[in-house]
Design a protein that fits this description.
Elements: E1 3-10, H1 15-26, E2 31-37, E3 42-47, H2 54-63, E4 67-71
Antiparallel strand pairs: 1-3, 1-4, 2-3
The protein binds dioxo(di-mu-sulfide)dimolybdenum.
């Protein structure tokens, strides 16, 4: 069963930052859909928790040098 999570992200300073996050997350196996918004400072992922964990997704965002504040 797919899960959806919206994460608040610190450090996106231009619209391309959101695109970088989107393409990185979108390329992970287990991630069905990824979108990020510079305006709202968030990224939303639809993923299969049996294939990829939320903590792995967060780790990938942090690797790009953004900081995940929290998810809801
Ligand atoms: Mo814009 Mo973001 O030049 O990593 S892409 S600041």
């Amino acid at each position: 069963k797919l899960a959806q999570k919206t994460l608040n992200i610190d450090g996106m300073t231009c619209a391309n930052c959101a695109l970088k996050i989107e393409s990185t997350l979108g390329g992970l196996s287990g991630v069905e859909k990824a979108s990020a918004s510079y305006g709202s400072g968030t990224a939303t992922v639809v993923y299969d928790p049996e294939i990829i964990s939320l903590s792995k997704i967060i780790e990938e965002i942090e690797k790009l040098d953004y900081h995940v504040i929290d998810g809801q």
